[in-house]
């Protein structure tokens, strides 16, 4: 019995020990697996925390960039507050990331890469802000456009996306381990159920608590996934993610539109399907990226085209395998770059020809003016007139050559005015028929009530003629050229596609032909200078470029539509005007002259002398000035002028436009006529007055007609008629008694000679000397003179001393003192003696004529 009891006891002990061992083992297993599950849960929570910290840090970087851009746009220091707050958040977030990733070498490496990229991004932002504060917005924006900031942002985005994807994969593995540990914990709990209810209760508690944590983790993961998808959808460019197995696992709506993939019909999309012919758009964009190639041969960024659009396709590798692919539409960017290159090319060409054309036009102007003067001197010599006509024709050809050079560079001087385009085209029809030949039929298609355009009519005629001749050359066997005039309105949508267009109303002039047409690559170069498809010697390549330059300089728009075998249509959109069209034909007859007073401002001495001679020969009373500063001084002293005729490009502290404004302020009724051989858009297009302009070189008849036109169109003067000076050509008592014998005292030989010429043209007999001593010696020897004209600044005896001595020794001799300081300067020097008269340098023949008349009045007995 004892042995049985002992056996039973021993058996019980063994069973108890066995049960205890089993329970202990089960408990040990339960404890072990529970601890392992808790550790995995901490790792899962740590992964979520790292993901959250990465997202917050990336958002802080975006906030800092937003703050920088707001500051660059507004310049307000308050806009930098998001940037300053973001910097602190970024530093804190990176430190927390480093602390959270301390036990994972891969994660630590990625965090270090992210820190380096974030630091570089902050330095770039700070550099841009400092550049703005030091050098201004344009410099900062130029630094921003270098692309370094975008490159760093792309790097940060790639690192963060790669980091998030890696953490997601790591999280998936940890969740799998967590589930495994929970299952083994459940088994251990079942074993403990037979041994102890408490162990079962503990096991159940562990399982329930772990399940709750898992559910929370899954909900958090779902929220993160939703946030990731929202982020992708916020991007307008197509973007998608391919995992290591070649499946598309994330995308946005733009990608669906571009690829044509419908997830509802086809659950999965693979890399092979994207590169197949089923998706032509994605095949065209992804083929250059070589997604199937090995890593050394795979491109990171490339350019591709599809359906007329250009894309920049970039790929970012993920640490766990797979790629993030983004397709950026750069069509508008490339179009803007092309327009910029075209503008730079035209600008370089204009700089090359502009200065030369300006000087050449001045030379031609001197030639043309002197030819006109010689014509009036030999009115009955037919042989001489024929030679002069040939010389004038040669000058005209030179002027046309200069205009061609300036036209395609958009630097030709234009005279835009309200123009009836329909009437201009009808008047041009006969010339077109004679120019194009019998095999070409000319048709006009003019709208019922066409608008008027603000354009240079002469240049528009040349443009239409150029286009018609090009159309004729495209129809060697004959055909039809149609010139269409209609009204058109270009809206904002059209302007968005053509950056050079301002939305609004235009007059459309279209020249259409039924010729051979042009392929797209030829049409794209049609407006380029010197580009031609004609044989050598048959074309200069300047025709269409001239038309392009003229239309663009006139604030219009030009386009060309052509197709092989269908013909070509060139459309000119000319800016509409509501101003009335002036009919100045009554003022353009031959032989007309004038008696108005004209202020001529020209810095070229030869041109100035030629213009003064022309206007004086026509009866105008002319005052000349070599620059706007001198002209302004003249107007301040005497503003009674009927017309201001001024060059545009001149040296001086004020511009020709400012001079015109000053003249109209001092003399409200004054007319203004501009001239230039090289305008180069010097007159701003906005908020400028519409001053008429005549281009150099011009014929005498053209200048006369233009003068009469602007004088006829001017506003009536507010000055009373009796206050205006007597018109030239009207005999007066003073004119019949004015001095004829004049003694000129001037030490500058050239000035003395020019003054002598002007006085001789006024009918005077002139003697000239270079000093006051010589003048006194000549007078003492008995020289008989009616007037003494002396400069104020003379070598030796000054003009002031000479005048005083002459007034003392020859009291009946009138004295005129010429001074650069005028009357006020002379009076300030104490020269107020009776019988003295003052004229300001530079003086003209009109000033001398007035001085002579003043001397005649002084000689009349009281």
Describe this structure in words.
- With 862 residues, the chain is an alpha/beta fold.
- It has 5 domains: 2-233; 235-329, Beta-Lactamase; 421-577, Histidine kinase-like ATPase, C-terminal domain (Heat Shock Protein 90, 2-Layer Sandwich), CATH 3.30.565.10; 585-723, 3-Layer(aba) Sandwich (Rossmann fold), CATH 3.40.50.2300; 733-859, Rossmann fold (3-Layer(aba) Sandwich).
- The strands form 4 sheets. Strands 6, 7, 8, 9, 10, 11 and 12 form a 7-stranded mixed sheet that branches. Strands 2-1-5-4-3 form a 5-stranded antiparallel sheet, with helices on both faces. Strands 14-13-15-16-17 form a 5-stranded parallel sheet.
- The longest helix is centred in the first third of the chain and has 73 residues, at 2-74.
- It is elongated, with a radius of gyration of 45 Å.
- The protein starts with a helix and ends with a helix.
- The model is unreliable at 1-9, 536-541, 584-591, 680-688, 715-736 and 821-832 (pLDDT under 50).
- Residues 224-265 form the PAS domain.
- GO terms for molecular function: ATP binding; phosphorelay sensor kinase activity.
- The modification 4-aspartylphosphate is found at residues 647, 791.
- Residues 715-728 have a biased composition (Low complexity).
């Amino acid at each position: 019995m004892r042995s049985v009891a002992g056996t039973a006891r021993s058996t019980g002990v063994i069973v108890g020990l066995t049960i205890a061992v089993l329970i202990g083992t089960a408990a040990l297993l339960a404890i072990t697996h529970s601890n392992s599950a808790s550790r995995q849960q901490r790792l899962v929570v740590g992964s979520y925390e790292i993901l959250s910290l990465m997202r917050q840090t990336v958002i802080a970087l975006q906030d800092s960039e937003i703050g920088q851009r707001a500051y660059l746009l507004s310049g307000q220091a308050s806009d930098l507050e998001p940037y300053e707050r973001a910097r602190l958040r970024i530093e804190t977030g990176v430190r927390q990331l480093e602390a959270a990733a301390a036990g994972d070498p891969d994660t630590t490496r990625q965090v270090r890469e992210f820190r380096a990229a974030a630091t570089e991004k902050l330095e770039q932002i700070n550099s841009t802000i400092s550049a703005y504060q030091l050098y201004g917005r344009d410099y900062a924006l130029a630094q921003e456009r270098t692309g370094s900031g975008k490159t760093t942002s792309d790097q940060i985005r790639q690192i963060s996306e790669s980091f998030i994807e890696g953490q997601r994969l790591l999280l998936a593995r940890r969740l799998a381990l967590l589930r495994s540990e929970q299952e083994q914990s459940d088994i251990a709990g079942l074993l403990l159920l037979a041994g102890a209810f408490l162990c079962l209760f503990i096991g159940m508690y562990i399982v329930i608590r772990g399940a709750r944590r898992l559910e929370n983790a899954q909900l958090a993961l779902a929220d993160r996934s939703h946030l990731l998808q929202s982020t992708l959808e916020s991007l307008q460019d197509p973007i998608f993610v391919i995992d290591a197995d070649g499946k598309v696992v994330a995308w946005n709506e733009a990608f669906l539109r571009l690829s044509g993939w419908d997830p509802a019909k086809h659950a999965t999309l693979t890399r092979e399907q994207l590169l197949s012919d089923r998706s032509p758009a994605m095949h065209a964009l992804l083929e250059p990226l070589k997604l199937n190639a090995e890593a050394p041969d795979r491109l990171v960024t490339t350019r591709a085209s599809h359906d007329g659009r250009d894309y920049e396709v970039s790929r970012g590798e993920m640490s766990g395998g797979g790629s993030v692919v983004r397709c950026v539409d750069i069509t508008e960017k490339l179009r803007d770059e092309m327009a910029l290159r075209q503008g730079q090319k035209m600008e370089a060409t204009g700089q090359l020809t502009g200065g030369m054309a300006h000087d050449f036009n001045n030379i031609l102007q001197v030639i043309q003016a002197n030819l006109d003067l010689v014509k009036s001197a030999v009115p009955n010599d037919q042989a001489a007139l024929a030679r002069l006509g040939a010389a004038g024709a040669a000058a005209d050809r030179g002027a046309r050559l200069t205009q061609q050079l300036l036209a395609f560079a958009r630097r030709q001087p234009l005279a835009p005015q309200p123009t009836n385009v329909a009437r201009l085209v009808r008047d041009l029809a006969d010339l077109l028929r004679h120019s194009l030949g019998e095999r070409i039929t000319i048709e006009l298609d003019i709208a019922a009530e066409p608008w008027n355009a603000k354009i240079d009519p002469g240049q528009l005629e040349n443009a239409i003629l150029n286009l018609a001749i090009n159309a004729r050359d495209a129809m060697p066997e004959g055909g039809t050229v149609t010139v269409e005039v209609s009204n058109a309105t270009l809206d904002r949508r059209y302007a968005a596609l053509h950056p050079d267009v301002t939305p609004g109303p235009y007059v459309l002039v279209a020249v259409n032909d039924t010729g051979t047409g042009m392929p797209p690559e030829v049409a794209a170069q049609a407006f380029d200078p010197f580009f031609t498809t004609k044989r050598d010697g048959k074309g200069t390549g300047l025709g269409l470029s001239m038309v392009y330059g003229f239309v663009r300089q006139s604030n219009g728009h030009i386009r060309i539509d052509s197709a092989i075998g269908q013909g070509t249509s060139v459309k000119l959109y000319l800016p509409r005007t509501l101003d009335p069209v002036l009919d100045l034909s009554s003022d353009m007859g031959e032989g007309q002259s004038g008696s108005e007073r004209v202020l001529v401002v020209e810095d070229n001495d030869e041109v100035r002398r030629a213009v003064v001679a022309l206007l004086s020969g026509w009866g105008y009373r002319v005052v000349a000035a070599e620059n706007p500063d001198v002209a302004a001084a003249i107007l301040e002293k005497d503003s009674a002028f009927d017309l201001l005729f001024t060059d545009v490009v001149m040296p001086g502290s004020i511009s020709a436009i400012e001079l015109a404004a000053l003249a109209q302020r001092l003399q409200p009724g004054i007319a203004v006529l501009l001239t230039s051989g090289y305008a180069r858009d010097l007159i701003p297009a906005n908020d400028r007055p519409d001053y008429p302009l005549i281009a150099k070189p011009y014929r005498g008849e053209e200048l006369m007609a233009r003068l009469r036109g602007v004088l006829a169109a001017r506003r009536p003067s507010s000055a009373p008629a009796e206050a205006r000076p007597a018109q030239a050509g009207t005999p007066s008592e003073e004119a019949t008694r004015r001095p004829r014998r004049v003694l000129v005292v001037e030490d500058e030989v050239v000035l003395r000679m020019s003054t002598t010429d002007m006085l001789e043209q006024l009918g005077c007999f002139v003697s000239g000397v270079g000093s006051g001593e010589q003048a006194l010696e000549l007078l003492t020897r008995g020289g008989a003179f009616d007037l003494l004209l002396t400069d104020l600044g003379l070598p030796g005896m000054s003009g002031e001393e000479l005048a005083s001595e002459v007034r003392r020794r020859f009291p009946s001799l009138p004295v005129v003192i010429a001074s650069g300081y005028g009357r006020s300067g002379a009076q300030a020097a104490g020269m107020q003696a009776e019988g003295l008269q003052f004229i300001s340098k530079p003086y003209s023949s009109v000033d001398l004529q007035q001085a002579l008349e003043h001397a005649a009045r002084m000689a009349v007995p009281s």
